[in-house]
UniProtKB/TrEMBL annotation, chain A:
Its main location: periplasm. Residues 104-500 form the Solute-binding protein family domain. SUPFAM superfamilies: Periplasmic binding protein-like II. Residues 1-28 form the signal peptide. Keywords: Plasmid, Signal. It is found in: Periplasm. This is Dipeptide/oligopeptide ABC transporter substrate-binding protein. GO terms for biological process: peptide transport. GO terms for molecular function: peptide transmembrane transporter activity. Belongs to the bacterial solute-binding protein 5 family. Transmembrane segments: none annotated. Pfam families: SBP_bac_5.
From TrEMBL, chain B:
Residues 102-318 form the ABC transmembrane type-1 domain. It is found in: Cell membrane. Keywords: Cell membrane, Membrane, Plasmid, Transmembrane, Transmembrane helix, Transport. The keyword Transport applies. InterPro entries: BPD_transp_1_N (IPR045621), MetI-like (IPR000515), MetI-like_sf (IPR035906). The lineage of its organism: Bacteria, Pseudomonadati, Pseudomonadota, Alphaproteobacteria, Hyphomicrobiales. The chain crosses the membrane at residues 9-29, 104-125, 137-161, 195-214, 248-275, 295-321. It is a multi-pass membrane protein. Gene3D superfamilies: MetI-like. Belongs to the binding-protein-dependent transport system permease family. GO terms for cellular component: plasma membrane. The keyword Transmembrane helix applies. One of its GO terms (biological process) is transmembrane transport. This is Dipeptide/oligopeptide ABC transporter permease protein.
Amino acid sequence: MKLVRDLRRQAVRAAVLALVVCAGWAGAAVAFQESPQLKALVDAGKLPPVDKRLPAKPLVLTPLQSVGSYGGTWRTATFGGGDSEIERSIGYTRLVRWNPEWTQVIPDIAESFEVNADATQYTFTLREGTRWSDGEPFSADDLIFWDEHVLRNKEITPSPPAWLTAGGEPVKVEKLGDYKVVFKFKAPNGLFLMNMATIRGADILAASPAHYLKKFHKDFNPEGIAALVKQAGAADWAQLFNNKISFPGRWRDVGRPVLDAWMLTAPYVGTSQVVAERNPYYAKVDTAGNQLPYLDKVTIDVMEDTQAIILKAINGEIDMQNRFIETTDARPVIVQNQEKGGYRLFIARPAWSNALLITLNQTHKNKVLRKVFSDKNFRIGLSHAINREELNQLIYAGQSKPYQAAPREGSALYDEQMATQYLKYDVNLANRYLDKAGLTTRDAEGYRLGPDGRRVTFAIDVLTGSPIQSDALELIQRYWRTVGIDMQPRPTERSLIFARLQTNENDGIGWVGGGGYDFLGLLDPKWYFPHEYESSFATAWGLYYQNPNDPNAEEPSEEAKKQMDLYRKVQQSATLEQQLAAMKELLAITRDQFYIIGTNLEPDRVGIVKKNMRNVPDVIPSTSFYMIPGPVKPETFYYEN
Amino acid sequence: MAGFMIRRLLYMIPMMFVISIVTFIIIQLPPGDFLTALTARLASQNETIDPGVLAGLRERYGLDQPLIVQYWKWISGILLRGDFGQSFDWNKPVSELIWSRLNLTMVVSLVTLIFVWAVAFPIGIYSAVRQYSVGDYIATFFGFLGLAIPSFLLALVLMYFSAHYFGLSIGGLFSPEYMNAAWSWGKLWDLMKHMWIPVIVLGTGATAALIRIMRANLLDELNKPYVDMARARGLSETRLLLKYPVRVALNPFVSTLGWVLPHLVSGAVVVSIVLSLPTTGPLLLSALFAQDMYLAGSIILLMSILTLIGTLISDLLLAWLDPRIRNG
């Protein structure tokens, strides 16, 4: 996959391009076609004709391979009560979205968008004639309702999300016309559109259908609200309202108006099946003027066990999915059963930088460990002591390659030196560096002694739920023993790791590393500089970045402070170009500081697609930030007969 | 008998109070709270949660208040209004979540219980009466096998076979086409088709145990003088067997009844998870993992209360069944 061919193209230019495409389209008056299902309803007089349901200039999607035919069901499965699979597969509709290659933000429900020079004003032009799934028109007033009565309502939103605030103030939406709005921030908010393209963006449109939501809003329905709250068994009206608009509650609200390709007909409750059916008012068409989506229906089986999902897949009960079946241990089964399950494979490329990062907390409460961990020579020594090629063979079946915690090859932020420094497996070199770090004396068992004359020993927390990472860590324990360092892998339950992080009680952790793809690095920079307590290589500095008054926060080093300023600069830049330039500067410091020890790249994973399903790419970036499979346009998937 | 009952009921009141406190403490024991667990869950999947949203949730759920306040909020809601609070993870009332799953949980548990008794009872008697016969050895062999196989493994194997050879869909209690349908004969038949796996899986261990217990108890009884005496009086073998020795040997069956009620709620968590059954077991586990304290607390509280009630019932039944207990 060519990852970043034209990443530097500005978002504005993308918008202009979209405009040009649409303008070209509007001239050609083609009659729209619709699915036979809907046609029958129109003929029966139960639904307005397709031309009345679509905008005059609907968004035209170019199918990846070919124009499709109508019909069929897309079957997927999810796990438990709060997984975002449903959001990513059938809820990926926003004002703007990711393009399939994940190199830019493109218009989605909005016809076009513009950003001003200091990233404080975002103007969106909506498509005249776009309708909610119940047939009501969607207009600027809906977005105004969301801003004034949801986001700025203290009862519903006690504290507004950070991505919608800048300069301590939530965004203000102003109406420039029935189909034109401007989002105004008090201070620059350069990552606003990117955030909107992630899972966060769904919250805006979910809380926008004013005609439907007013009934559940105290200000609009003061008399009737109490009865509704009682009927729903909610604690108060704010909770009732929040259940209608936030994840996962909104997926239990059948009949909620949406702008998605499919609308909910069986809710997301417990172990059952979620069903969504074609939205007759979906405002997108293909290049031949067929109203999308092609597929009639989507079903999502809610399972309690991931193994059962894998069984479902090899049994041919899943049509297109990668989540839950892409795990390393499931891979052989998934690959072997292609014939039986009637599917082919696609590559779900992990977007993160590393299969296993090892962090050592440089802000450790224990003075000795802090001193030892803070010495770059110590970290370089440990890095050289890891036999990454052996790890690759034993743990990742040779599918991976040695890599530091750095952006992936082919991305705009890629830095060869950062990705490949200190990778060489060389015990002598490792020992030299550890000696250089001042740990020259050893005890009777050959372990190195710290400055206090005691053995240097520490624990690395790893998730109990990630046996593969535990296995890798046990090998690394052996490698480090050879150079006289005593590291104990400590499989720990998730919440406990986090509770330790919040209070700066961690030695270090072994974790999957984010930031491999550009947008992931921009939006989730915790592995590149001390951004929050999860930046476990310097927890107290991360706490400081979020809140300098936190009892566990500490003043960061000069370099870290410089990085924090650079990241603020990223947030204040209006164009991707400027953002990437600032990020590059930030990463140069990360490279020189060598905060984190990387091991291997995460090997490519595989998802499955039914043999006759078309318009599914062969390679898709895989991370929730990308919202796989949303951006590859499931509304254009179809079955070839 | 009446005095015995009243005494037992009175003991239950302080017991419940203690249980509610212990339950709450247990749920608060793990470090962090629901939001820590939520953040951690997202981070392990390479996701993040917006700090503003997090602060809002903390306030809305009252997680920033002292423990004693949180406990009082929960317990007073239950005592004064019958309100078990709201589940954080589901944003729904706890009672609604539990009730919606209790029906199927009860059906599965009761069918399992009937299956266990129907199988264990005759086989146990047969094994005892025909001790060391071929039949006894076969029953013993399968009994030990049933005890030894981990039930979740059996569940996985059966699930694989039923999918592979009978073409049944994986997991759950219904096929996809009936999953959201209203009740009908077709749906009932579909339930039956799926039900046998959980019933066998949940039942094998208990069946095996009961066969052995029945056999051992009956063997003890059969060698007692009163049996010889009854025989000497010319009672038919069947009647003789069922009238006294089996009645005495029934004790363990009745005492297991006490465990049936809590089982109805927690119903073999691991198996339910493997089979993706829409029962309360998986609900409890996910609530504990998510630190969804009102949901987990309420389920545990309910289970404890049901254990108390179940024990009471089985004690009463035993007293009714066995004069030695009644008058002892």
